[in-house]
Amino acid sequence: MVFPSSSCHNIAMEIYIVHAFTDKVFGGNPAGVVLLSHEEAFPETNVCIKIAAELRCSETVFIKKEEHFTLRYFTPTDEVPLCGHATIAASHILLKKHPSLNNTTFLIDTLSGLLPITIEDSFIWMTMGKPEIRDFVFSKSLENDLYKIMGIKNPDLPLKPKIVSTGLADIILPVKDVNEITPDYHKLSRFSKDLDVVGVHAFSQGEGEVTCHTRNFAPLYGIPEEAATGTASGALTYYLYDQGLIEKNSSCLFLQGEAMNRPSLIKTRIKNEDAITIETGGKAVVFQEGKLNL
Description:
This protein is α+β, with helices and mostly antiparallel strands. The chain has helices spanning 45-55, 84-97, 140-149, 185-195, 230-242, and strands at 12-20, 29-35, 60-65, 69-74, 79-80, 105-110, 113-120, 123-127, 132-133, 162-165, 169-174, 200-205, 212-218, 223-226, 251-256, 264-272, 276-282, 284-293. The chain contains 5 helices and 18 strands.
């Protein structure tokens, strides 16, 4: 029997699973990284989403070298404009493929704009999008609803929740102890959709060198909890600066992922020269690599 030949074009892509914001496997936040050749176009959006779902990471980034390195980010359900830990993972792979990038600054092209990446002795810093605090005030009733959704009593802290973005909008939520959080994911998805945010980035006070302990929840995008969130860490840094808790030209160290047994160390630094810029930094390690054939 002779079978008809397929009209499908076979595409071979390099794929990696990278643990970001750690230098040890089984730590940090896993991200999928897919490298496209110069000749190949980005797959259709629905195909990218299927690949992201198959790789089973909270985000998968696709990279293609054009005028700059063009990056597109996908959760298992949607495309998103930017992802911090996936950018760290992607930059780690680019450094692995192009060692001359070490101790240089180069641009990546994202849906959040052109963003500089600086690699200093293999430590990766990504410049976040323009920091912004949304002109939205949580009423006492809405604030109580939010804390109830997160499974904790309103702590009545002097700090209040705010919607902050350095590329993606998140609710920055102060709590007394991040370990007390037990979210209602269904209600949190609806709440996030109503406020047009990715999710909630909660923080409590750190100790020693650790500025804050943090947890991130984005069930609206298929991510119940994330072990390391670079964009939200940038947003938290701007929140702390806006509240007068850190000064310009200072740095922060955030510890995330403890509740998931995937501790992640996320560094940030804020500069205030001609304009305020925030950088998020970390290390990464390759856990798995191979080929994907479509």
